[in-house]
Write a structure and sequence with these properties.
This protein is mainly alpha-helical. Helix content is 65%, strand content 5%. The termini are far apart.
Length: 572
């Protein structure tokens, strides 16, 4: 090695210096020192001038553009991830279809809509950054801050209102769905059969309670209407009576002398003739027989049963209220004896009359015969009323009510007298125009008999609920639900008074009658014809009466009519 090798020449020194300068310059650029120095030098030159403000806006815009570019790049990466995720999900789904295990853990779900939102948000953020940089430290910055606060408050208010509306809609939808589910559950429970008997009973009870509430409400309205009607007609009648009285009085003053001359002798003649007798006649019957027949007609007893009763009375006493058996002491038209005779005496004392009074004896007979049935019993009374053959009726009354000894029976004479009474009544229209029977039960259809069976097993809901009981009967028979008061049912469904039209299962009703006081006048009464000349109804207890007896009592007001409840013809 020579000494010259350790000595650097001029050319070598120049090349080394150039290389060092290049290396340092590259490092300076890479570390940002050059840019920073350039920026500092530029700021020193243009700072505080108009060019400085322009440069500031330029730099802010440049930053915003860079932010948008970076957001776009991030969006691109997100899109790639989304495509990869979709591919992975499709492969996993395909594996599931092939019966292989599906593992979707680690997959991500993205959508084009979310990607678009991300890009849009990045652009907005870039614009806002540029805007803030442009107006920083100027008067416009305060204005912008105020605007942003107002805008945020407005958005919060709108969002709150939208949330309230949305919640209201959701609550309404939930309420509708809940109601529908409850209804469906109720129907399901009611129709589930024997397994849900309790639910069925509860449903029927609630429906019956609802009907009673509605019926009570309509009853109140009907009561008010009827009360107003009664007041109206009472006023009209009073005015008419006053008018008639005035007219008669004025006319009477004019003819008074003529009346005194012509009619006074006739008056005394008539008064002297009828003062000790009654002018009652029923058909060809007169005297006590006519009085007894009329009493039974007013109670609704039909022609056959009146004849059977009076034929027995004639055999016992000749229909004389003062008849007395000299050996036994039996007394009156039915020859009462023992405790039954004592009952007659007590009733006479209550009425302040003598026990020989025919009206007292008839009231006592009716109590024993049909009301308390103390003379026999309810079952025997129903058997008697159900019988339509005159001979059988005569025998039943003699053996079950009179209960005379066989030696005193004289059945042939009793029947002969009953036939005489029957024929005498035939000349009168005193049996309420009902002389005949409706359809026989044995000719009824299955649906008609279903109503009869339901009527015989449905219990009374209480006194005053005759229409509610009829409604329950038809429900229990599977016919349907038909509500309303007795007068409502009569007006809506009862159209006939011809006994030939009367079918088993028809309702028979009146709009108004005086027999049960205000309730009868306002609401009437309704029963069901069950065939064989019998009507069943709720009078507190469930009672069965002959058609004639029912019509005789309840038909004294507006009259009784019959028809198919709800217009449903059960005979077809």
């Amino acid at each position: 090695m020579r000494a010259d090798d350790f000595v650097t020449g001029d050319s070598a020194r120049g090349a080394g210096q150039s290389s060092l300068v290049g290396t340092e310059s590259t490092n300076a650029v890479n570390t940002g020192l050059v840019g920073s120095a350039a920026a500092i030098a530029k700021n020193m030159v243009i700072g505080g001038t108009e060019l400085g403000d322009v440069d500031k806006m330029y730099q802010a815009g440049k930053s915003a553009v860079k932010g948008s570019v970076n957001a776009a790049r991030a969006g691109s990466d997100l899109a790639k991830d989304t495509v990869d995720t979709a591919k992975t999900t499709a492969k996993a789904f395909k594996a599931g279809l092939n019966g292989e295990n599906i593992d979707l853990s680690g997959t991500k779900s993205r959508s084009g809509k979310n990607l678009a939102k991300g890009a849009k948000k990045a652009a907005k953020d870039g614009f806002r950054a540029a805007k803030r940089a442009a107006i920083k430290d100027s008067e416009l910055e305060d204005v912008d801050n105020l605007y942003q606060e107002a805008k945020g408050l407005s958005k919060a208010t709108v969002s709150s209102a939208k949330g309230a509306v949305s919640n209201t809609r959701k609550s309404w939808k939930m309420l509708k769905r809940s109601t529908a589910r409850i209804k469906a559950l109720s129907r399901k429970r009611f129709t589930a059969g024997a397994g849900n008997k309790f639910n069925q009973q509860m449903y029927k009870y609630m429906r019956s309670a609802a009907y009673r509430s509605v019926s009570t409400s309509s009853g109140i309205v009907s009561t008010v209407k009827n009360a107003m009607s009664v007041i109206y007609w009472d006023i009209r009648l009073a005015l008419s009576s006053i008018s008639s009285a005035i007219g008669l009085f004025l006319g009477f003053l004019g003819i008074l002398p003529l009346l005194l001359v012509v009619f006074v002798p006739i008056f005394f003649l008539i008064f002297g003739t009828i003062s000790g007798t009654k002018a009652t006649t029923v058909g060809s019957l007169t005297g006590d027989e006519a009085t007894i027949a009329q009493y039974l007609i007013d109670k609704g007893v039909d022609r056959t049963h009146i004849a059977a009763i009076m034929g027995n009375m004639f055999q016992e006493s000749g229909c004389r209220p003062t008849a007395i058996n000299p050996s036994s002491g039996a007394y009156g038209i039915c020859q009462w004896l023992g405790g039954r005779k004592t009952g007659l005496e007590n009733l006479a004392k209550q009425k302040g009359k003598d026990m020989s009074d025919l009206s007292v004896q008839l009231d006592w007979f009716w109590d024993e015969f049909a009301e308390s049935c103390s003379g026999w019993n309810k079952a025997k009374y129903k058997v008697f009323c159900a019988q339509s053959d005159l001979k059988q009726c005569v025998y039943l009354f003699r053996s079950q009510f009179e209960r005379c000894g066989e030696s005193e029976a004289a059945d042939a004479n009793r029947l002969a007298q009953a036939q005489r009474i029957y024929d005498a009544l035939g000349t009168s229209n005193g049996t309420n125009g009902i002389d005949g029977n409706g359809q026989d039960l044995k000719k009824a259809t299955r649906r008609q008999k279903d109503v009869v069976n339901a009527a015989n097993t449905t219990t009374s809901p209480g006194q005053g609920w005759c229409a509610a009981w009829v409604t329950n009967v038809f429900q229990n028979a599977g016919i349907g639900y038909f509500g309303g008061n007795a007068c409502d049912m009569c007006r809506a469904y009862c159209t006939s008074t011809n006994v030939r039209d009367l079918k088993v299962g028809m309702i028979i009703a009146d709009v108004s009658h005086p027999g049960t006081g205000d309730a009868g006048r306002l609401y009437g009464h309704v029963g069901i014809y069950i065939g064989d000349n019998k009507v069943i109804s709720n009078e507190g207890p469930i009672t069965i009466k002959s058609l004639q007896e029912f019509v005789g009592f309840y038909g004294k007001g507006t009259g009784c009519k019959w028809g198919w409840l709800g217009g449903v013809d059960l005979s077809k």
